[in-house]
Design a protein that fits this description.
This protein is mostly helical. It has one domain (2-7, 14-220): Rhomboid-like fold (Up-down Bundle). The chain has helices at residues 17-35, 40-47, 52-55, 57-60, 65-75, 82-103, 105-126, 138-151, 173-191, 204-220; strands at residues 2-8, 156-162, 164-172. Strands 1-2-3 form a three-stranded antiparallel sheet. The protein is globular and about 50 Å long.
């Protein structure tokens, strides 16, 4: 059984424009992916995060700023399937709105993208030498979860238990997010026993890295004043 969050009980004073913008950009990017047909593999091979490009002699010989940094940023808006996309967007919607309300639009985006970078770097480090591509916004969204974990310890998350969607209940945010993080860490640790060059699937360590970066940023960033709505 898998807990599925759908809402929280945090009161917000500003509209979550940055969260909405990120959701729309991810949806548009996926529509663009679908339009490519058989050319999609070429897009993925160029813009996915491939650890071997950053950690092997063969990869480093052709590595440039464009080939190194741009794929990390672009890969945050690419997804492999509708369930992959919709699951990520659901988590971004549930937790992003309150984090954006606390820190303001600009700081929220900073948390999002810096967490995505931190997620990518840990994924590359743990999977050094692997040529398996990785895409998705989950590393950046994990940073939003980490920030939420720090900022809203008393929040309650309306949660469904998959596949029993007729049963919902409020779950304390630290329990839900703590369980989520522990699952990522333990599964990632277990996956270390598999050869990174052949292992695919979920980028567990990207989730761990993003969550930790989001926690750290939430601890050091001052919250935004409720009257300040600017970017």
């Amino acid at each position: 059984m898998l807990p599925v969050p759908v809402n929280d009980n945090v009161r917000r004073q500003r509209f979550w424009v940055a969260t909405l913008l990120l959701i729309l950009l991810n949806l548009l990017a996926f529509e663009f992916e679908l339009s490519l047909g058989h050319h999609l593999n070429r897009l993925i091979s160029y813009y996915a995060i491939i650890p071997g490009r950053y950690t092997t002699c063969r990869g480093l010989q052709t590595l440039t700023v464009e080939r190194g940094l741009v794929p990390i940023l672009v890969s945050m808006f690419l997804h492999g399937s509708w369930p992959h996309l919709l699951g990520n967007m659901l988590f971004l919607f549930v937790f992003g709105r309150s984090v954006e309300n606390r820190f303001g639009h600009a700081k929220f985006l900073l948390i999002y993208f810096l967490s995505g970078l931190g997620a990518a770097f840990l994924h590359i480090f743990v999977n050094a030498g692997s040529w398996v591509p990785s895409i998705g916004a989950s590393g950046a969204i994990a940073g939003v979860l980490g920030a939420y974990f720090v900022c809203f310890p008393r929040a309650r998350i309306t949660t469904f238990i998959f596949p029993f969607f007729f049963w919902s209940f409020p779950l304390p945010a630290p329990i839900l997010l703590g369980y989520w993080f522990l699952l990522q860490f333990l599964t990632g640790f277990q996956m270390l026993a598999i050869e990174s060059a052949t292992a695919g699937g979920v980028a567990w360590w990207a989730h761990v890295g993003g969550f930790l970066v989001g926690m750290a940023l939430a601890l050091i960033m001052p919250p935004q004043r409720a009257t300040d709505f600017g970017f």
